[in-house]
Amino acid sequence: MDIILSSLLLLYGLMGGNGDQDITAQQLAVSYINAAAGTTIVQPAEGYPALPGESDNSAPAAKTDPQPDAPEIKGIYVSAYSAGGARMPSLIKLVDDTELNSMVIDMKDDNGYITYATETPELLDLGTPQKYIGDIKGLMDTLKQHNIYPIARIVTFKDTMLATKHPELSFLQADGTLLKNSKGESFVNPYSEKVWKYNVDIAKEAARLGFKEIQFDYVRFPEGFETNADTLTYEKTDKSRVDTIAGFVKYARQQLEPLGVRVSVDIFGYAASVPAAQGIGQDFVKISNDVHVISPMIYPSHYSSGWFHLDDPDMNPYATIKGAMEDTHKKLDPMGSLKPVIRPWIQDFTANWLGRGHYMKYGKEQVEQQIKALKDSGVNEYLLWNAGNKYSFDTSASADPD
């Protein structure tokens, strides 16, 4: 255990991020350290909890890939702002002109906005549309014309809009105010049946619009939750946080799989290298049991000195990705037929917050090194993350007006 804790302390050197990467390294490290030091390591369970309030008397239905003939996905993140704005033509051209074949597009963004003009009463009841994508049907037609595999990103439990609109679905502090993180953002309660159904209802609408996969992000409790959980007011059940998060994933998969869409989840890359983070409710294997695709976020900049025997992982993109994949395979290979497709997020941004001498400028060469490391590890799928959607091999991006 001392060896495990020593390794976990290396997380304290991490900084920065995007996607579900805004959690500070210190806070995440505390979650994993507490899990290793104070609790039993969670192993894959025989079954998961049903939707809160329902009985749980049967084993989960067998997972079946609804798209066994799907291509090997090589994609980019596209914000709703880009998808509905002036940058989209250049991003489509980028996909057309390269080996890329997919876009991950925000349907519910990091603030909790539904990003298109939904007319579904159930979604309007809880959700707050912000019409970044003015013509969602036109967008889907364009993607189909260019043979671009569409993936709908749904930021799940980080939802400031819903938390503000319905504080009873979030976490209240002792003084009655809404729990917020250091950026002023709020999470909604993963124990809540309404929250589960709301997010899956958005996913169902995305499926009806033509998306072939639903990618859930921020599938967790707030960072550092274990340090103040007992002082907060919120709905809860007798299920652990880990089983609650796994239960949501199972519920989402069972609801969406019959619609012919895959379910994927973003998860911290180093979750494959350490015990379950019971504080935030994430267990790599339990989540993987009920998804068709798992997308670990293995950005080199998110590993601190010492990981994979490297002084500066960001300066060694190939070795970092190779090490991350070795740990991922160790975690998932024993799952047998339940093992999901591994499709990591990789880095197409420069992590200058790491400080001089600890980072390098990322461009085409660094992206190619990461892709090579994946292929050398038997992984042929990947997603590129750049929060501003300015990808290193998109030579027109710097000229875009927005």
Automatic annotation (TrEMBL):
This is GTP-binding protein. Gene3D superfamilies: Glycosidases. Residues 46-71 are annotated as: Disordered. InterPro entries: DUF4015, GH. Pfam families: DUF4015. Residues 75-391 form the DUF4015 domain.
